[in-house]
Amino acid sequence: MKKINKLVMGLLAGSILLTSCNDFGDLNTDPNRPSNPLTSGLLTGAQRSVSSVVGDATSVLYAQQLSEKQYTEASRYQTIYFNFNDFYSGPLMNLQRIIELNTNEETKGDVLSSGSNENQIAVARILKAYFFATLTDRWGELPYTEALKGELDFSPAYDSQEFIYTDLLKELKEAAAQIDPGTAAVEGDLLFDGNMESWRRFANSLRMILALRISDVSPQAAQTNFTEAYSGGILLTDFMYPYLGEANNQNPWYGRYLTRVDYAISDTMHDYMKPLNDPRLEVYADTTASGKGIVPMPYGISNAEAGSITNADVSYLGMAMREQGAELPILTTAQLEFSLAEAALKGWISESAEDHYLKAIESSFRQYGVYTQAGFDAFVAQPDVAWSDAAGIEKIGYQKWVALFLQGFEAWAEWRRLDYPALAPATAALNSSKEIPVRQAYPTTERDINTDNYLEAVSRQGEDGLDTKLWWDVK
């Protein structure tokens, strides 16, 4: 109830802030110094957009964790151009405004009701890094240093992905250090409820994830950032997005199933998990209505072929994952343990890669409520799961893919980086190359409105399509 009230009040506050001038006119108002800027409402609004990351469907289909039952175009890579404008005009602009209001000497005193200036700035920087990391892992080069300036710059230049990653790692390091637990915590925070230590640990955890992502192209910077972040303290519990049992903040998978039943466990994932007797499969997928147990849906087939399969004979996304108030993961301890296993394998940390690998699987089992000591011991003893230094990256790649279920953007990024699991393209692929996408193309508005900067980015990065590899994807 506390989070519900904070969410509602935050949104109402933001609404009041945006409409106050229309209601009361400009009488006694300094347009350059708002009398009551409610940055808590801006923060709540930005955090609501985290749902569009953790609840994304297309990336889950790219990672072949699910298949479509009725309309299979997304899993056959029909869409080429994807829109990033809503991120810039929505959460990123909100977060930039928080930073500006807490930095400007004329306004920083007015926003203290939403937390200390330093803590508000730090949280906004961390969330900006989170969103920009997701965006650059989708598109590569992006408007970054010249972005978020509003009417001062409607045609921002693009920065290279290498520059963006370097700056994101710097931002996370500085933001973690900027947090001051001795001053007022942030208000309007539906993710950590103002727990500044959790924000610091999230910044370090995200920095570890991003450092590992660039390990093939910038190994020294990757190692330095990873070990610094790890030594600073990371999350010890799963970080989940708190959906509610009401329509304004409901689980997006619940909303999708209100209109049509169209997402089932893929044969790719099922056929890996089933022979291993993986107990998570019974959480990931429901049994069929026809009573045939868990039956997967073939991945990437044509609409006609999909339509020939009876709805009652396939297993849809597990009900526990798509209840109206079911939480979805933002970043999990399993994800971090797999990262530590890889770091140990690389020699970055003097710890056991096998121990972290096993802890990662255990954490995933516990996350989905299927852990028993006997069941876990039997699972990890199987040859296809048991640790091997020689096959460490492959072991991590497969088990991490399973553990990242519904964390589509992260699962897709790690598949591109590690090249595990071995995924075959959709059998009825609609894109020209017939290959699994390794990026998404820029929105057509950039080509048409920000033409010169768009063309410069394309000339550096490569063709604006689904097949151009990103800077960090070198394998």
Automatic annotation (TrEMBL):
Keywords: Lipoprotein, Signal. It comes from the Bacteria. It holds the Pfam family SusD-like_2. The keyword Magnesium does not apply. Residues 1-25 form the signal peptide. PROSITE patterns: PROKAR_LIPOPROTEIN. This is SusD/RagB family nutrient-binding outer membrane lipoprotein. It comes from Algoriphagus aestuariicola.
